[in-house]
Structures are given as C-alpha cells and as structure tokens.
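Researcher: Next entry in the queue.
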Amino acid sequence: MTSPRLMPQARRFLGRRPRVLLKLGGWSLLESAHTFLGGYGVARALDDGFLAGRSGTGLAWLAVAAVAVVIGGLATGGVFRGLADLVEPLRDGLLRRVVARSLNEALTEPARTADSAVVSRLTSQTEIARDSFAGLVLVARSFVFTSAGALFGLAALAPQLLFVVAPPLLTGLLLFMATLVPMAARQRDFLRADEALSAQVGALAHGLRDVVACGARTPTADRTDVLVEAEARAARSLAHWSAVRVLSLGVAGHLPVVLLLVAAPWLLREGVSAGALLGALTYLTQALLPALHTLMNAVGAAGTRLLVVLGRLSPGPAGLPAVPAWAPGDEALGGRPDVPGAEFHGVTFAYGAGAQPVLRGLDLTIGTGEHLAVVGPSGIGKSTLTCLLAGLLTPDRGTVRVQGRPAHHPPGDPARLRVLIPQQAYVFTGSLYDNLAYLCPDGTSPSAMEASAEAVGLRPLVRRLGGYTARVDPTALSEGERQLIALARAHLSPAPLVILDEATCHLDPEAEARAERAFARRPGTLVVVAHRISSAQRADRILVLDGVHAECGSHEQLLDTSPLYRDLVGHWRAERI
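Model: Structure for this entry, 577 residues:
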C-alpha cells in the first residue's frame, strides 16, 4: 500500500475523533505557554530588571519563566493522556484487520501452510505501527505549537525580529517538505532491496550444499551481486536525499541564529533592546532548533516505518519464456554409455585427521542408467557418500569419478554432470519458473517443464500457486511442497546423475513412489538414500553400509547374505505396523 492510498484512511480515522483532537490541542496550547514565556521572560528580566537596576523585577520575570516550565510539564502529562486516546484505537483497529485478513486467507486458501508472518503482524508490527504513529503525532504537535509560541514571542518582543528569523525558517521548512516524498520513496526502495538481499542470503544459508553440488555457484553469485548492487544504489540515493534534509535543518534552524547575530547592530539601531535579542536567541536555540531537529529525525525514521508497516498490515501472468532445451526422454541426457555413471576406487574418508574413517577403502561402480539405493543405520555414512559423489567432500584416499571425470571440481559446468537433492530442499523467493529452471544452464521450455511437473506430481501445487510465473514464498510452503519443487527441478535438469539424499522423506509413500518412478524412467543414473523398504525394493541394486564393510546386491540377494540388511528390513516393517 502506498502513501496516497493511506491518506484518505488517515483522514477518516482522525475525522471520527474530534473530541480527542480538541483535547489534545488544548493541552498542547497550554504546553506552548512554556515556550512563549521562556524567551519573553528572559527578555523582560534583562530589560526591565537587571539592566534597569531592578534585580527584584528581573528575578520575578525569571520566576515566571520557571513557573511556565512547571505548567508545561503538567500539560505534557495531559498531552500523553490525550495521545493514548488517539493511539490505542489505531492499534485495536489494526489487530482486527490482521485477524480478519488471516481468517479470510485460511478460508480461501485452506491448503496454505501457516507461517510466522501472522504472529509477527499481530505482535511486533502492530506495536511498531502504534509506537511510530504516537511518535509522529507527538513530534508534529510539539513542533507546531512550539513554533507558534516562539513566533508569537518574537512578535511580542520586536516585530523586526520576524524579518530576520522568518525567511530562513520558512525556506528550510519548504526545503524539508520538498524532500518528504522522494525521501520516503528512497527509503522504501532501500528497505525492499535490503529485504530482498536478506531473503537471498537466508535462502543460500539453507541451500548452500545444493548450490555447490549442482554447480550453481556462478549464477547464484551473479544473482546475489545484482541484489547487493541494488541495495548499494538505494543506499547512495538515500544518502543524497539525507544530505538535502541536513541542509534544510541548517537553513531552518542554524541560519536564523547566524543572521540574528549578523543583524544585531542593525536591530539595535532600530530600537530593539538587548533583552529582546537575548530572548530571540533563547527562542531559537532552546525551542525552535530542538523542535526542528526532532521533527526531521522522527519523520525520517518513524514516518517510514509507519508507512511500511501499515502497507503490510492492510489488506495473472505472462507466458513462460521458451528457449531451446532438452525434453524428458532425450537420449543425450543419460550420459555417455561407454563409461560408468559413477565410480569409487579405494575411497577412504574421515572428518578430521584423528577421527575414525566413515568410509574405508570403498570400491563401487555404478553403471550408466542404473538405479542404486543406499541403506544403513543412521549416522553410518550415507550422506557422506552422497557428498563425495556430489563433489562437496574430497576423499582422503582414493578417487571418485562421475561419467569418467573427477567428482571434485570437474571440468565444465557441474550442473551438466550431477544434481544432489538433500533432505532440506532449497527453494528461493522468486517465480516458480525460475525455481524449476534453476539447474538448466541452457534454459528450458514450457513443454519440458510441464512434463517434469507431471512426472513428479507437482501439478496440483502449480495450480494452487497460480501457474509457473507465480511468485513463490518458501515460508508459505510445507516441507513436502518444497521437496516436490526440488524434485521437479532435478528431473528437469540435464544432469546424467541424480542423487536423492532422503529427498522424499516429507512425502507420503504414494507420492514418494511416484517421484522415484519418474526418476527411474528418466534417462541417466539415479542414486537414492532410502528410508523406506519400498524405496529400496524399487532399485536395481542396493548398497548396504555398516561402517566397516559395504555389501551390494539385489533385495533378494541381500536378504540371504546380509544380517544388517535383514535387520533394517525388519525395522522398516515394524514401523509400518
């Protein structure tokens, strides 16, 4: 929501509370007497008292100024009581709006996953709106009545003082008002850029292993560089307008003091007394300048926060770009048939020089087009094996090769070689199309994307989100939905080797079976870390890791030869019961 749309609502909100506004104005008027009597009392104490040799009169005027301070303090208490009558209804209205909006979303989008945004809107964001609104009302009211008291005091002391003080004061205020709209726009741009960069960095923190394994470091770095540069541009533009705001403060607050001192000889010749000059300086330095400084800082900080938060609390896409791409079933996808899909030769790996090896002397050849399931107790080294295969880890001894090339730092684009999908699926804020085409270096086509989405069972989510160009918010998706997007992305990629490290653990057995069958039909090699017996049974071969030995064979063979595999199968069957 933009500020022009907020203004009518603000006028309606204030128009329904005339008694509160009159009460607040009355206390503010009484508070402004402190400002008027502060400078006027100093002037009279000097002219009519101390300079005239009447110390008693001077002290009496200073006492009047002191009493005005006390009255101003009492009036401030009334101001805060009136402010509460204005601010609390705003917070209550915002809370009702947030609850109504959340209930409406729950009724219209029952499949939508609940997220922490509703809690944030109900708590911190409504409190920010209330506090920011209270601060703006307090500061704006203080500036208006302080300025009125000071200007009336200057006129009462000597009208000539207004000719010196008023022009720079009005010029600075006009300059400040001219910066409000562009400054608010620049601050919104900066906040959006900062949030976009924070979202990107946060997503990368969860998906860094995917990015490295899938060879997406370059496009990810490019995307992040664009966001960093956008935030830097917004910050520079904001700094330029901040400099203009500082200039307006200097013109409105400091220039009148300088001009008053420069014009002092002329004012004295015009009959302005020394007491009046001192009273004018008191108005400028003790009332107008602090009020101006507070006003400009509050509007710049609290004003922007209020606009942004109110915009968030208030309550159909173009076609997909088509570029040449492979389609599922393309034989080139399966990799070179004359070399194995992946190979481990004497691989030993340990997490640290003094640690026990997780894998010791592993020899394994995975044929091109083969479907291999990896099973074993928790913590035995299944994810370590997938990380070695994806090039995230380097073996202490031995070699790991994919399609005849080193798994770690292979030549060419790693995204064309292998894809790793871990348990925590990486989904970033952006369009669904961008999420799915993320691992396609040469782009993809709408037909290929449709085929992959249909194959892994993503179509219902595509329809719910509103199509492939719909914006994806990772926090609004369930873990299973994020896994489906990651699976469709891997299925769509040109990589001849796909590694699923419990990448279907948040899917139900039927959805998991559909996704794994889709990858089994896809050309290329498939390695799956299995957590269900059905997943292991769908594989061509099963690799059993037990920390010392590694056995490989079919489901029936391992039931005869591997006690560990029989235990795992018994455990899986017990869990089903």
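Model: The radius of gyration is 36 Å.
Researcher: Noted, moving on.
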